[in-house]
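Data deposition worksheet. Section B asks for the primary sequence of the deposited chain exactly as it was used as input, without tags or linkers unless they were present during the calculation. Section C holds the resulting structure in token form. Section D is free text for depositor observations; keep each observation to a single sentence. Incomplete worksheets are returned to the depositor.
Section A, Depositor: J.P.
Section B:
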Amino acid sequence: MDELERKDIIEKVTTLLKEIPSSMDVVKKGGNRDPRFRYLATHMVDKAIEKDALIISENRQGIAILFKTSKKDNNIWKDLWSQLKLVVNVTGVKNAYKIIKTQDYIKKQRPQEGEYLYCWFWGILKDSRGADKQVGKEMKDEFYRRAKLYNLPLYAETRMRKNALVYQKFGFNLFHEWQHPSGDTMYFLRYDPPKE
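Section C:
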């Protein structure tokens, strides 16, 4: 991926992050929040590129980050430097403590043993949304292709009810609901690839 393409993806992820309740909570309030969203988007895209987890739709309007991971990958010391930079550049110290507590609960809903696929991010720019555009279906098909290829379950969560319904329409099972500290409901979803 060249630098121009990377920057384009970062700009699109920055735009999408501003619509997602979880990222709205993560990014420190006050002042000009745009650089904080951009820093977060850059962190996410670079991590996705490094881990070969970036999925981009054919029309370049849908972007997802789908990690192949396990509980042992959640090593706090491994990414400590980048985590500290996120606290300084995105969340702020006060917000970081709340985020850690919330993330601890969320991570406990994922498998505690073995590998799985985790949808860390999935967004489609406004002009490409809707069943008639087929971008969501195209990306879902790629998620399922990878789940089948690796023979691994796929996990996702969302605080947007309409997104939870779309996930379920696509074949995910809702396995848990949680009253998020923000007051929203968080929906936890899982997709199991069909057995051969």
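Section D:
The beta strands are 54-56, 62-70, 115-124, 154-158, 173-179, 185-191.
The chain has seven helices and six strands.
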